[in-house]
Amino acid sequence: MLASSCEKKLDQVPISSATTPTFYAQPSDFIQAVNAAYNSLRGYPDRLMELSEVRSDNIYPSNNDVGRDHDPINNFSPGIAPNVYVEEGWRSDYSGIFKANTVLEQLAKNAGFVGSTILANRLAAEAKFLRAFFYFDLVKYYGKVPVVDHTVSAAEANTIPRSSVAEVYALIISDLQFAIANLPLNFSGAYPYYGPTDIGRATKYAAEATLALVYMTRSGPTYGIEGAGMGLNEWNLALPLLQDIITNGGFVFNPAQYAFPVPATGIFSYSNQNPSTNKEAIFDVLYLTQANSGLGATYPWALVPQDFFNTYGNPSTSGALGAPSVSSNLVNSYPAGDKRLSPTIHTTQYGSSLYPFFRKYLDTTKVPSTNSRFDWAINFIVIRYTDILMLKAECILHGAPGTQADVDAIVNQVRARAGLTPVANVTLAQLFDERRREFAGEGSRWFDLQRSGNLVTIMNAWRAVEDAALHKMNPIIEKQIIYPVPQSQLDAAPGLYTQNLGY
Amino acid sequence: MKKTKLLFLALLVLLPTLLFAQQRQVKGKVNDETGAGIPDANVSLKGTAITVKTDGGGNFTITIPEGTKSVQLVISHVSYPEQTINVSGNEVSVTLQRVSQQMDEVVVIGYGTQKRRNVTGAVSSFDARKLEERPVLRVDQALVGQMAGVRVKQTTGTPGKGFSIQVRGSGSISGGNEPLYVIDGFPLTQNSSNTATGSFSTGNPLDNINPSDIESIEVLKDAAAAAIYGSRGANGVVIITTKHGQSGKAKISFNVYGGFNETAKKLEMMNGQQWIDHATEVINATYVTQFKTVGALATDDMATRLSRTGGNNPNYIPDPRWTMPGHPGLRFIDWQDEIERKGQIQNYEISASGGNDAVRYFLSANYGYQQGFVIKTDYKSYSLRANVEINASKKLKFGINIAPTYSISQDPGVEGKDQIFHQALSLAPVQEDTVGLLPNTGKNFEYLWSSSTNSPYGKLIYNVGTNKRYRTLGTFFGELQIIKGLSLKSSVNFDNVDNIGTTYVPYITTGRAQQVMNASGVVTAGPSNTRIFTGANNLLSATSGTYRSYRRQTFVNENTLTYNTVFKNDHSITLLAGYAYNWDRFDQAALTSSGGYNSATIQTLNAAAAVTGNTTSTQSVFISYFGRLQYGYKDKYLLLASLRRDGSSRFGVNDQFALFPAVSLGWVASEEDFMKNISVLSHLKLRVSYGESGNDNLGNDYASLATIGNANYVFGSTPATGIGQAPNVLANPDLKWEKSKTYDFGLDFGILKNRITGSFDYYNKLNTDLLLNVQVPAATGFTSYLSNIGSVRNIGQELEITSRNTVGKIQWITSVNVTHNTNKIEALAPGQNQIIIPNGFTVSDAILRVGAPINSIYVLKVLGFLTAKDIADNVPRYGPGEQPGDFKFQDINGDGTITEADKQIVGHPNPDWTYGITNTVRYKGFDLSVLVQGQAGGSIFSQFGRSITRPGQGRSDNHPASFVNRWYSETNQGEGRFSKAFSTFNTPITSATDWLYSSDYIRVRNITLGYNLRNVIKTKVLQNARVYVTLENYIGHDKYTNGLNPEATNTGISTNAAYPEAGDYGAMPLSKSLIFGLNITF
Questions:
Q1: B879 and chain A: CB distance < 8 Å anywhere?
Q2: Are the beta carbons of A200 and B723 separated by less than 8 Å?
Q3: Contact residues on chain B for A311, CB-CB shorter than 8 A
Q4: Taking CB atoms and an 8 Å limit, are A295 and B290 in contact across chains?
Q5: Cβ of A475: how many Cβ atoms within 10 Å?
Q6: pLDDT at residue B873 in the model
Q7: What interface predicted TM-score (ipTM) does this complex get?
Q8: DSSP-based three-state secondary structure for A270
């Protein structure tokens, strides 16, 4: 008797932390659960730098950059399955998916505690937007991935193989369609809709933009691999979504002149960070610099050499970084008078080094002091209005409704802002070249190359010239358009996942 | 039979008359080895019922009846083996010897005792009376080198800090490897959080325990012995028994000692001139490399350099004073000498014990003070103890043990990475004369050619780190004899530790006051001086303070029923059944100043600009049922079997309970008739055992549950933290104990009438179900979860021998213990062959690999130095930055380049051999004891060595003096250990055998010479008066040539708590001490 009553005491509940069975009991708990899923966006820009920008013809493996983790990404080594950036993408996106799944599960399980159906729908839409966003990220980098639409135990995960790309897209599209139907339009509503303190959450337009890009990515060529391109022709599915954003979204093409330093009203200005005033931003990853908050941005220095910081008297607190150099091909692609070059790429000597690097997100008056280079206060624009316009032009050139004049107008609007003369009869190739200069350093180049259908040709032609002297790069093959399944995943469940061909 | 009884009765009746008429008296004294009288010894006349007891001074008088032909006296005492002597005269002196391996010694085995003769498990004993004779500050210190299979590591030289104990190797990767400590039957909470940094940051179970209160220590080593402690026995069990009063006259003891301690090792660093030579070489090479295009030469003078470099950079321009005679304005400093001292040690103790049939008591009070050999560090301890036993009736006994203790230690942060000691070694030995020992402190600038380190001396003077610990251990027990042989014992035990740690760092020892060189080479104040008050920047904002406290509470209730019987004379049986309830709680609070202080004089946090704080608590419950059978036939054939069922709240709901069985057999072969003829062999026992025990020591009370943790994000038009919360671990409802299965084969022997006694053990210990973070598919949302997987095997041999080399006037005893242990990972997760332990400071240097020892050292192998020919031949290199004079590494995978994939296992951290040898010699009143102890076969990969000798380190830091013998050219490669001074191969720095050292050492741990003054002072009052002098740790040798303590652990190297790797990144050396002491007993 005494013993059995004592044995009940073996069921101890943590004193200083909640657990899954005890936590979800109030509306605020579910909001916090969704917030946690947003947290997995924090590494998204860094990943774009390391896995898209570094992989593309925008970055060249310079002489000054040896043994860094991005080096094998940069030079197309086949043995990159254990690479930290390859590992990070898979891990981080699935962490976000798990948190989104947790929200959806708890909303279903504890519906009575959420308070209102409106809030429950909004939170479900946010969770589904994020889940789709993370799966889209995965499918772009790795191709086939296991689809989990609920939280799974270790044992269950060991039984779920990689699904086909089509199956992954099926979940992405259905999630985004739910999100478009249920997400608030903007941040001027009253609880449980979005108010000003909710800026940073996904809106209907963020979901539309994502879905449009999903359709366009699916419409890209397959390259004979199981990657993100499926060779579908869904340009006409993408266009109405883009048009809705342009017509009804209230976003504005920012005419602010490019200059360096960046003008206060510029798109990437530190003083134009509020998404409610920076009308170029459709969806942002938000950062906050504050002592020890741990919420500052790290991506601005990801591709910036240590020597540069040393010239600002703020050396690294944890080891030095090499310099992944911006390719001379990109630097030279800017025509004379292009106002974008200077604020995008640093080309002059710093210390004793002269390796060009991206400075789009750097403001040298804002080098963080408290946490060294790891705590920048600049948001990352995931989807910007200029991109929506240029995607629209791309759809039209692929045969979606619209005219060449529409396309030329969009491209010339961008060119005018860069101080360049207008052009006529813009082709897809010209459009992609303009995209390269406009979005340099923003992480879209690798995916643009994929969609263009000319990735392998362009990359190898570029390598032949850029790498003629140093011979640091391997030839680029179709199979390496997607990354390998990270080694940790192959190790965690031996035999469950098959490695992508080419690795 | 009847006849003798009648005769005996008759004798008794007649005795008084006989006594009166023809009695003869024998007077005598019973001494111990030190010559001190032994009270309460029984002296009986063999073959009669005549028995007397010795008095407080060990004296007795016994009456011998007339007609007794040969007088034989039998002297017996509970603590000594029985001795029979022949008496011819009327005076006799008997010396009883307590030898630790004596067969009749009583051994505490957990919930009971056993005679050493009958022990069937692997149990080592330590006679703690030695603790009185030697000045030890901690119990664990006394155990160094004493027992086979028990490795006691002194991981730190900081006074008052705990030692790390490992019994029979490391069996756990992520859980704790420290044994369970049981004090007077009270199992103390194990603390496994030590494993990350190896520094017992939340306390060690032996903290504040006064060594002088201890009577004996037993270590249960094999699973058969330890299995009675079930799920906590896998790392061995250390059973500590404190002193208890004996019936008889009160015995009052004073123990006083005092002396000093100083560093046992000094690492010679480059002196001022050597540092200048090195800095000049680096500056010249940097200058020439950087400006060779404009024709820079190492011989360029300052003006040329200024013009070529655009002026003002100390990287290119040496201090002109370096070459001036007497280097005016500069001071050469040996930082080690400046921060070290001879610290004083003093200790005072009084104890009283005694009692009668109803009450027995032992009371003690102790005050100890030890100054560290690093200035401003010290340790004070106060402890009291009362052990009282009361016989309420013949069948009912009560007892209480209570020990309140308090200790204060001062340590402003001496050990660890970038802590004071590390900085004292690294900081340039050349500084501006005007600031002396306090560069970059207060208003003082840093020396332009030195580094931005704040003076380590200044930190010792101005920074504060205080730790105050109040601990009370209490046990109350009752014992009822229900019927003869059957007794019930119940105890309630409570351990409460309150610890408060405070730190204070004033602004004067933080930040920088830079110097710069202007274009004409003149050194002036720099732009950044964080310590100059300008009105805008409040200098107090750099001041910081913390207040951290924890309370650890353990409550244990144990109830045991013991039945003891002998039937048909030959069959002895002891049965035990028990139930235990164990409750643990840990509460901690931390307050930290934020935004600096408002006052420069107040150090408490009320003066902080703002305070942030938090509190956390954890709690666990543990329930056990256990039973044991001991059976002996004619004391010849022995059996012990035990079974324990443990339930713990720490484990998954599916696995809360587990069974831990054990059985051991013993055969006292020397009792067999056929062995009795072998006169050389006086005792031989063979033992064999198998048992299973567990390890629940994983440092987290809720590891099986999916706890919710923060995952914040930023929202809002004014960006603000949006609290995000999500599960931060993957739940594992099947989580359970690590299991240890041990086979042990043992042999106990006594040769030449037990002049030489000893034991040998072979063990094979397989730890399975290790708590490991197993990789899981990220589709779970996690990369790993805590699971029971993988196994580690330890195989070892242990030998303990005690030899009484000479008896009689000169008594010389030698005790030797030797242990050999091999450790091997048998399995990790299925399909997993290795885990490379992530390193927080550089690339990884350790690996968990199937087939290799735990935490094997996994680095690149240095073959030598690259030559110009090597570069021309394109030999494999670690990147193109490597040039002649840089390291040449082994390309183990033969791919023509050196990468992290070329790492190999080059050593393991645990030694293969450990040994201890104690020699004790007694002659007349003198006693001399020498303890030599050491280890061999292990290695240390030194992060600290890396920090002071890595290539391309630049001009400012200091290096070991042996760095003078670095590589200078292909024809002058120095001693072959250090590469060239100036190297552009400075990033990335890999881990290589360059920082691998053997951890072998041999130390004369203790030399004590004592003399008993009773030979000089003849008084009856004084039972014992011994003076002694002790040299602790005075002589020693190790192979850690660029470090200070080969056993040091002070910094968490691993960034993954699941694979802890504690290493040396700035250890203090151990101390050596010279101490004089006095023991007086009345």
A1: yes
A2: no
A3: none
A4: no
A5: 11
A6: 92
A7: 0.95
A8: coil
Check CB contact of B452 with chain A, cutoff 8 Å.
Answer: no
Q: Please tell me if residue B612 touches chain A, with a CB cutoff of 8 Å.
A: no
Local structure of residue B783 (DSSP, 8 states): S
Q: Of A37, A38, A28, whose CA–CA distance to A116 is shortest?
A: A28
Q: Say yes or no to pLDDT of B478 above 60.
A: yes
Express each pLDDT in A348-365 by its tens digit: 888 667 889 998 998 877
Nearest to B726 among A6, A36, A313 (CB): A36
Residues 555-584 of B with CB under 8 A from A: 579, 581, 583
* pLDDT (mean) for A229-256: 94
Mean pLDDT within B506-511: 91
Structure tokens at B571: 């069959």
- Taking contacts as CB-CB distances below 8 angstroms, the residues of chain B near A310 are none
Report the alpha-carbon distance of residue A407 to residue A432 in Å, rounded: 12
B117: left (phi over 0), alpha (psi -120 to 50) or beta: alpha
Give the residue-averaged pLDDT of A249-270: 82
pTM: 0.83
- In total, the C-beta contacts within 8 angstroms joining chain A to chain B are 222
Q: Residue B658 pLDDT > 80, yes or no?
A: yes
With cut-offs at 50, 70 and 90, classify the pLDDT of residue B89. Answer: confident
Torsion of CA A368, A43, A384, B722, to 10 degrees: -80
- Find the CB nearest A3 among B579, B618, B705: B579
Q: Do B730 and A154 touch (CB under 8 A)?
A: yes
Set of chain A residues whose Cβ sits within 8 Å of the Cβ of B701? 12, 14
**Exposed, middle or buried: residue B718 (CB in 10 Å: 0-12, 13-18, 19+)?**
exposed
DSSP A313: T
Contact B906, B846 (CB under 8 A): no
- CA gap B644, B131 in Å, rounded: 34
Phi, psi of A414 (to 5 degrees): -65, -45
Helix (H) or strand (E) holding B474: strand B464-483
C-beta separation of B873 from B929 below 8 A: no
Name every chain A residue with its beta carbon within 8 A of the beta carbon of B897.
none
The C-alpha of A480 sits at a distance from chain B's nearest C-alpha, in angstroms, of 22
Instruction: Please state the φ and ψ torsions of residue B1039, each to the nearest 5 degrees.
Output: -105, 15
Given 2.10.110.10, 3.40.710.10, 1.25.40.390, 3.40.630.10, which CATH number is that of A20-325+337-482? 1.25.40.390
CA distances from B265 to B199, B881, B931, B1035, B1068 (A): 21, 37, 19, 10, 9
Distance, in Å, from the CA atom of B858 to the CA atom of B727, rounded to the nearest integer, reads: 34
Q: B805 and B918 in contact (C-beta within 8 Å)?
A: no
Of B615, B621, B779, the CB nearest to A146: B779
B680 is written with which tokens?
Answer: 């050389």
Rounded Cα distance, A34 and A106, in Å: 11
User: DSSP per residue over B18-40, as a string?
Assistant: HHHHH-EEEEEEEE-TTS-B-TT
- Residue whose C-alpha is closest to residue B150's, from B128, B164, B166, B163: B166
Six token digits for residue B800: 């303990």
User: Residue A177 is which amino acid?
Assistant: Q
C-alpha span between B330 and A175 (Å, rounded): 72
Give the separation between CA B208 and CA B191, rounded to whole angstroms. 15
The separation between the first and the last C-alpha atoms of chain B, rounded to the nearest angstrom, is: 46
Q: How many CA atoms lie within 13 A of B1028 on its CB side?
A: 32
CB-based contacts of B161, cutoff 8 Å, min separation 6: B155, B199, B200, B204, B409
CB contact under 8 A, A38 and B579: no
Positive or negative: CA dihedral B44, B45, B49, B55: negative
